[in-house]
């Protein structure tokens, strides 16, 4: 891990040097030939499990349950989501279940207010950090019956009127392909030397966190480059550390599974039956495993500097911090892939394949959001700069962090604070996108890049 930290610091330093290019990089719309729309692969009939680690952008009710229905306030926020309706996790689960006979299970450990690092100043210690969320998942894997909170575990077959509301609303580029869309990752298919045994089941792990590590800085702290750099370095290290632990756990699970299957093929010493299963010497490494493929996807940081909640005076510094963190995170995935023999990287899950069951990739949600915000009219948003939920007496408080302001807003906002047509807005409150925005700019582009078809 010391090596990881040294590489992280080096990556952060290199990021500063190439920062202008990163800030100017934008996601272009893909052509029909290169877009995910041209993919014929969709969610299969096999079992799918989606595991989510993150913050309020991904929370489907965990903080709401923890605070006994207080945050986010149900008078303004929908069913424990920090949005006007279902968030991107809900939408992705519905997409995954489209045309599939199998139940898609979501294990969501994301909590509103969560940080990548534990004990970040200005944040609540009762909210599980990224590392603690991973511990919750690992405990579930080793303890029969353990699970996230009731709101966090659900089958994607669940339907609500909100989920159906946005069907058919989309945006297209000049070539007719999906707007703000990168080409689909190649579908990970078993190769002749892979050990997945042809099992089509899949576990998708999404890690999307780090925003509150930066937004917890007071406005005045953004004027101290050392404080900002420390926050970026610590946050990036904490994310990489959790990815390292997750990959190690998945690898260990696979090894244990292989050992169990090898043991089952050992000959029965007391049997005289010549047809008794027999594992010949030297055949231990040729056992064909059956089990799910594990796809680990890190979402980089969203463009926080564009959120209305961020004061104009610190927007350039927030943009620099986000870009620095994203470049460092991308650089740190390469040694992790090498360590665990995972596929992924440029070109998607099949690139540099070392096995057919484990991949590690970066999803550029930053680029997708940045592009969507520059094409709001094509998405049908009539109000792209203003937000829907206003609580002026809380938002106008000075001397506190952006995260602290939004925590207060989400706790006290009532129905009277909500605009009449949230679906016309890109932003619901001053930090969180509306349900429609999360569908069009978060869930659908990600599903297409995974190679899933939209119903």
TrEMBL record:
Domain of life: Eukaryota
Sequence segments annotated as region (Disordered): 169-198, 259-283
Record-level Gene Ontology MF annotations: lipase activity
GO BP, one annotated term: lipid metabolic process
Stored Pfam families: Lipase_GDSL
Position of the signal peptide: 1-24
Keywords: Signal
Comp. bias intervals (Low complexity): 259-281
Keyword Signal: yes
PROSITE patterns: LIPASE_GDSL_SER
PANTHER family linked: GDSL ESTERASE/LIPASE EXL3, SGNH HYDROLASE-TYPE ESTERASE DOMAIN-CONTAINING PROTEIN
Family (UniProt): Belongs to the 'GDSL' lipolytic enzyme family.
Protein name: Uncharacterized protein
Organism: Astrephomene gubernaculifera
């Amino acid at each position: 891990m010391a090596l990881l930290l040294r590489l992280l610091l080096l990556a952060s330093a290199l990021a500063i040097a190439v920062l202008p290019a990163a800030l100017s990089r934008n996601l272009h719309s893909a052509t029909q030939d290169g877009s995910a729309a041209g993919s014929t692969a969709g969610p299969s009939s096999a079992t799918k499990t989606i595991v989510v680690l993150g913050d309020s952008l991904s929370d489907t009710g965990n903080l709401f349950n923890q605070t006994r229905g207080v945050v986010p306030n149900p008078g303004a926020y929908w069913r424990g989501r920090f949005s006007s309706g279902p968030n991107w996790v809900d939408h992705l689960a519905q997409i995954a279940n489209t045309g599939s006979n199998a139940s898609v299970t979501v294990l969501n450990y994301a909590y509103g207010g969560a940080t990548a690092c534990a004990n970040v100043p200005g944040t609540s210690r009762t909210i599980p950090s990224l590392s603690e969320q991973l511990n919750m998942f690992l405990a579930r894997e080793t303890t029969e019956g353990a699970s996230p909170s009731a709101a966090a575990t659900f089958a994607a077959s669940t339907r609500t009127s909100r989920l159906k509301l946005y069907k058919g609303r989309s945006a297209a580029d000049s070539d007719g392909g999906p707007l703000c869309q990168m080409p689909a990752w190649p579908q990970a298919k078993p190769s002749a030397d892979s050990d997945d045994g042809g099992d089509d089941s899949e576990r998708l792990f999404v890690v999307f966190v780090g925003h509150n590590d930066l937004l917890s800085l007071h406005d005045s702290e953004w004027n101290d480059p050392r404080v900002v750099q420390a926050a970026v370095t610590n946050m990036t290290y904490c994310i990489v550390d959790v990815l390292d632990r997750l990959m190690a756990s998945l690898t260990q699970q696979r090894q244990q599974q292989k050992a169990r299957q090898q043991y089952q093929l050992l000959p029965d010493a007391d049997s005289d039956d010549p047809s008794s299963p027999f594992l010949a010497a030297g055949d231990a490494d040729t056992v064909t495993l059956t089990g799910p493929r594990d796809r680990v996807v890190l979402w980089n940081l969203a463009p926080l500097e564009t959120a209305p909640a961020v004061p104009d005076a610190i927007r350039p510094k927030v943009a620099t911090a986000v870009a620095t963190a994203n470049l460092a995170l991308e650089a740190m995935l390469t040694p992790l892939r090498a360590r665990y023999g995972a596929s992924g990287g440029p070109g998607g899950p099949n690139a540099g394949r070392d096995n057919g069951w484990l991949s590690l990739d970066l999803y550029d949600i930053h680029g997708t959001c940045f592009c969507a915000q520059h094409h709001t009219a094509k998405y049908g948003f009539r109000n792209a700069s203003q937000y829907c939920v206003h609580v002026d007496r809380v938002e106008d408080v000075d001397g506190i962090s952006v995260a602290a302001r939004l925590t207060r807003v989400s706790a006290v906002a009532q129905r009277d604070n909500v605009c009449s047509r949230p679906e016309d807005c890109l932003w619901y409150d001053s930090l969180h996108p509306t349900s429609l925005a999360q569908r069009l700019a978060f869930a659908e582009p990600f599903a297409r890049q995974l190679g899933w078809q939209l119903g």
